[in-house]
């Protein structure tokens, strides 16, 4: 993917030469109304910077993996699960998702939720929760009320 050194913003969190992609292949994992844009993907950096956006009521996949995420919220309102805790998030909040920690982002019903996400360029495949994982997560009522699978 050859891209110029300067790629101006062309709209509301859209950029020149940056395609708006599906979050994941449909049917590969549970999610709802999420787009993905890969902003930086330089092998010299060993990391990628992506921008994800959920439409109102949308959510990312509940997953965990060995690689970590560093997230900066950019727009909208919503919440995220990290481990066994649900946090409200707002623009410019920082969210760190450590290795092997269950996580999921969800936009509020009437608001989008957009965030920058830095991730390792080389990374393991996300794991999805099995029945026992879900039962353990649902031990906490706030988590049971939050998660979408
Ligand atoms: Mn993840």
Describe what this molecule looks like in 3D.
- The chain is mainly beta and 149 residues long.
- It has one domain: Jelly Rolls, CATH 2.60.120.
- 9% of the residues lie in helices and 43% in strands.
- It has two helices and eleven strands.
- The strands form three sheets. Strands 3-4-5-11-6-9 form a six-stranded antiparallel beta sheet, with no helix packed on it. Strands 8-7-10 form a three-stranded antiparallel beta sheet. Strands 1-2 form a two-stranded antiparallel sheet.
- Strand 4 and strand 5 (47-59) form a beta hairpin.
- The longest helix is centred in the last third of the chain and has 7 residues, at 131-137.
- The radius of gyration is 15 Å and the shape is globular.
- It starts with 8 loop residues before the first strand and ends with a helix.
- The model has no long low-confidence stretch (mean pLDDT 96).
- The site of manganese (II) ion has 5 residues, from loops.
Unreliable runs:
none
Q: Under the CATH scheme, which architecture would be assigned?
A: Sandwich
Helix content: under 10%
Q: What gap, in angstroms, lies between the N and C termini? A: 33 Å
Q: How many structural domains does the protein architecture include?
A: 1
The CATH superfamily is Jelly Rolls
Any idea of the CATH class? Mainly Beta
User: What's the total number of strands?
Assistant: 11
Based on CA atoms alone, the radius of gyration comes out at 15 Å
Proportion of residues in β-strands = 35-45%
Average of the residue pLDDT scores = 96
């Amino acid at each position: 993917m050859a891209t110029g050194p300067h790629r101006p913003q062309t709209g509301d969190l859209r950029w020149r030469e940056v395609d708006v992609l599906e979050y994941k292949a449909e049917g590969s994992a549970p999610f709802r109304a999420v787009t993905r844009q890969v902003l930086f993907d330089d092998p010299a950096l060993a990391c990628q910077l992506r921008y994800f956006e959920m439409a109102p009521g949308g959510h990312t996949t509940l997953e965990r993996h060995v690689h970590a995420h560093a997230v900066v919220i950019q727009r909208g309102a919503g919440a995220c699960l990290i481990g066994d805790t649900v946090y409200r998030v707002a623009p410019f909040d920082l969210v760190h998702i450590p290795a092997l920690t269950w996580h999921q982002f969800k936009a509020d019903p009437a608001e989008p939720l957009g965030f920058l996400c830095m991730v390792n360029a080389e990374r393991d495949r996300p794991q999805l929760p099995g029945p026992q994982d879900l039962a353990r997560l649902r031990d906490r009522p706030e988590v049971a009320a939050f998660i979408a699978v």
